[in-house]
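Technical annex, item 7. During the second reporting period the consortium partners agreed on a shared format for inverse folding records so that results from different sites could be compared directly. Each record opens with the tokenized structure and is followed by the designed sequence. A conforming record, contributed by the partner at site C, is shown below for reference.
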């Protein structure tokens, strides 16, 4: 967006949709340099020191290593090269990272670099989409820049969760829909359907949450008959079904005996995973571990209520304020109020334009995407991770840029000045509120943003008053400068939090944005968490155990409850490990007979179970022990619970059978059973 006088400003109205793109003049030098700086800057910032994140989420990293080693594992997204069980998501993200591992060798860099490059692609798509509908490269640069400096984007496009590829594909679908709008292009709409089909194969139903927005925008705006619009949408739905359904059909036709178990499903079917564990069960809060819950303390112990909250999955709030509070607020909400306001302003400003108006059509794409996903996240009852909100980052960037462009075009009018003041106030005011929540970090920043916001808002309001009309040329120049200054000031909070996010090491299942939080001393809880690290799949693996597993010659070096610990062992030893019960211990594999058969066939080297020393203060019976009383006998169902040692295992049948037939050895906080030794 260039600074021009009112006399040289382009007209407010745009021509018909079919000729809007033709208005885009050849790129000027600053526009070419701006695009190069945006894309190169995003690449450098996101790729720089990316290995600081190590293996990121070890759960997915193990699947990437597995796919880098074995083609069947790559195809199905198996957690282990032995193809016992998959991760609990479709495999598209593993395909990208594992193929990189196949080519360059598995490492942190080969796994995470493709994720960062996806951010560059997403920024380019945002630039292209907004530039096309506005015929203004400045607006496109603003959209791409806003996406690049959103903290959750900087976090997750340098991480190995499936969210990055899903959001890239959702953005591609939006871009293709916008390309389809000017001429009612069936070809571009079919490509949008294909992109959504693969977004579904990245993270299932979440990848389709943008679908209603895209469909409605095309139905309203496309310059063809209503009948043709419906037929085009049906064809796009067919493209979606084909591009996603082939994989579902593959899982049905491939013999279950020669493919891994589809983790998270109750019956080893893909659609049960889609509709159940990763679908309605998760959304409605029914996605619990039930009877196989390995985190249930043994009889006689209870976590104190004051610290019980530290062990839950974390809902990050709930209800209408969820998108603005807590960690979610820091990750995504910096421009959320401004984006919602921008959507309203664009709809109002273009209310008299023809049905086929492109800018209003693009506003429907991004605005409805934001509203639909935002409402869905606000109502989600299950375990809500803050980084899920990455799914609305392109929508915020797109609708905000459209709103800023519309106000810029109308900056010589009272609507443009007052609307610009409101937009800047929503940006800077909310940035101040968010930074105030972390008041110890860079306190000067929030006050600077607030001061600049106040000055620009006041200036725009004064420029809208009648006395300012006496000096129209000065007023118009001042309006342009104030709009630019106010938008830059409002972006400063998001930019600063993104800059603070990039150099931090992010690992585990719940990474967060911004500067590192000061360590908290949780007393007995800290020691307990340290002991639980192996069970959670975090922390270092004892070198003695690494040596034991590396020395095995069995198909699987070990078996352990849950995918997290199994993934940690795989990454430490580069050996295949069975994850008993999958991610939550609820998957019905292996059964005890299956496990016994694996042992008889000498396919498993070791069985491993964590040993956790429970704090004595957590005992429900606080009576001192009688020194003259005989020693308590171990409870087979809750081994060593009387002595304060807890062996958490979701599949108690397998644990009891192994304990009854094999001799244990202790390695750190683990009980290790050699299954290749003669059984008792």
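Designed sequence (site C submission):
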């Amino acid at each position: 967006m260039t600074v021009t006088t009112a006399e040289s400003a382009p007209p407010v109205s745009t021509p018909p949709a079919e000729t809007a793109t033709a208005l885009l003049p050849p790129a000027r030098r600053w526009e070419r340099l701006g695009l190069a700086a945006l894309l190169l800057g995003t690449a450098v910032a996101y790729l720089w020191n990316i290995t600081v994140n190590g293996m990121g989420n070890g759960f997915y990293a193990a699947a990437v290593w597995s796919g880098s080693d074995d083609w069947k594992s790559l195809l199905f997204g198996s957690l282990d090269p032995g193809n016992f069980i998959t991760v609990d998501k479709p495999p598209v993200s593993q395909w990208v990272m594992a193929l990189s591992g196949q080519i360059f060798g598995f490492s942190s860099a080969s796994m995470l670099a493709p994720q960062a490059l996806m951010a560059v692609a997403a920024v380019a798509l945002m630039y292209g989409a907004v530039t096309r509908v506005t015929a203004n490269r400045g607006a496109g640069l603003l959209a791409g820049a806003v996406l690049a400096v959103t903290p959750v984007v900087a976090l997750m496009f340098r991480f190995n969760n499936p969210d990055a590829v899903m959001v890239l594909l959702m953005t591609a679908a939006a871009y293709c829909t916008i390309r389809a709008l000017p001429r009612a292009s069936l070809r571009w709409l079919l490509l949008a359907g294909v992109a959504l089909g693969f977004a579904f194969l990245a993270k299932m139903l979440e990848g389709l949450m943008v679908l209603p927005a895209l469909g409605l925008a095309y139905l309203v705006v496309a310059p063809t008959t209503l009948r043709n619009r419906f037929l085009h949408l049906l064809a796009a739905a067919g493209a979606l079904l084909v591009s996603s359904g082939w994989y579902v059909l593959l899982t049905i036709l491939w013999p279950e005996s020669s493919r891994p178990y589809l983790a998270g499903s109750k019956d080893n079917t893909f659609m049960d995973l889609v509709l159940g564990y990763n679908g309605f069960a998760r959304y409605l809060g029914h996605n619990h571990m039930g009877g196989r819950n390995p985190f249930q303390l043994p009889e006689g112990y209870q976590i104190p209520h004051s610290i019980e909250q530290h062990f839950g999955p974390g809902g990050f709030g709930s209800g209408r304020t969820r998108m603005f509070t807590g960690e979610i607020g820091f990750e995504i909400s910096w421009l959320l109020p401004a984006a919602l306001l921008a959507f309203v302003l664009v709809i109002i400003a273009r209310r008299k334009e023809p049905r086929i108006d492109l800018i209003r059509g693009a506003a429907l794409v991004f605005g409805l995407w934001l509203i639909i996903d935002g409402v869905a996240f606000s109502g989600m009852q299950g375990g809500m991770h803050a980084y899920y909100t990455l799914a609305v980052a392109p929508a915020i960037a797109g609708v905000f840029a459209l709103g800023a462009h519309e106000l810029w075009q109308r900056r010589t009018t009272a609507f443009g000045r007052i609307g610009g003041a409101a937009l800047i106030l929503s940006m800077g005011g909310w940035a101040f509120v968010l930074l105030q929540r972390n008041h110890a970090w860079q306190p000067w920043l929030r006050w600077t943003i607030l001061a600049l916001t106040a000055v620009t808002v006041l200036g725009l309001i004064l420029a809208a008053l009648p006395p300012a009309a006496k000096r129209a040329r000065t007023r118009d120049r001042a309006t342009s400068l104030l709009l630019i200054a106010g938008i830059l000031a409002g972006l400063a909070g998001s930019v600063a939090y993104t800059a603070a996010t990039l150099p931090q090491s992010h690992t585990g299942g719940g990474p967060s944005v911004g500067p590192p939080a000061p360590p908290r001393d949780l007393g007995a809880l800290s020691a307990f968490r340290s002991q639980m690290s192996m069970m959670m799949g975090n922390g270092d693996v004892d070198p003695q155990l690494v040596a034991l597993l590396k020395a095995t010659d069995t198909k699987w070096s070990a078996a352990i409850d849950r995918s997290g610990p199994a993934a940690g062992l795989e990454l430490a030893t580069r050996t295949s490990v069975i994850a008993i019960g999958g991610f939550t211990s609820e998957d019905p594999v292996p059964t005890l007979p299956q496990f016994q058969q694996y042992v008889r066939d000498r396919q498993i080297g070791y069985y491993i179970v964590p040993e956790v020393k429970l704090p004595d203060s957590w005992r429900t019976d606080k009576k001192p022990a009688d020194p003259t009383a005989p020693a308590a006998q171990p409870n087979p169902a809750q081994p060593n619970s009387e002595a304060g040692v807890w062996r958490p295992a979701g599949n108690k049948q397998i644990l009891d059978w192994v304990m009854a037939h094999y001799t244990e050895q202790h390695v750190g906080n683990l009980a290790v059973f050699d299954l290749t030794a003669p059984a008792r």
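Residues 23 and 135 are 6 Å apart (CA to CA). The mean pLDDT is 88. All partners now use this format for quarterly exchanges.
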